[in-house]
Design brief:
This protein has helices at 9-24, 36-89, 94-98. The chain is built from three helices and no strands. Helices cover 63% and strands 0% of the residues.
């Protein structure tokens, strides 16, 4: 289950606008300190942050898969340990119960209910 990577409409719009502004003047400086250079810097900054975010998600996905695999391996090993205890001491022993098993005499047997008579 891979996590959804992120894109940005704002980034796409800004890149289109930046290319249009460059056609006017590549070194344009507007009122309030707004310039093409700062605009490009902001675009690059956002692009890098999105890229880092998406790479981090990929790393998280890889780690998640590794955790699931490790859990499965540990569950299999735990089962082998319990089976080993059962083979050595028996399934009705206190050692088997201490290891996490349910003793044979402690298991509840299902009771069958008689089928209802149909008329």
């Amino acid at each position: 289950m891979a996590r959804q990577k992120r894109g940005s409409r704002t980034l796409e719009k800004a890149e289109r606008r930046f290319s249009s502004i460059q056609q006017i003047d590549s070194k344009i400086v507007l009122d309030g300190g707004v310039s093409a250079t700062n605009y490009n810097k902001n675009i690059t900054d956002l692009r890098n942050k999105i890229s880092t975010y998406n790479k981090t998600l990929s790393t998280v996905d890889d780690l998640y898969i590794e955790i699931i695999d490790a859990e499965r391996a540990l569950a299999d090993y735990s089962e082998k340990v319990l089976l080993g205890v059962a083979a050595r001491f028996g399934k009705d022993s206190k050692e088997y119960e201490v290891a996490g098993g349910i003793r044979k005499r402690s298991r509840k047997r299902p009771t069958r209910t008689p089928a209802a008579a149909t008329s």
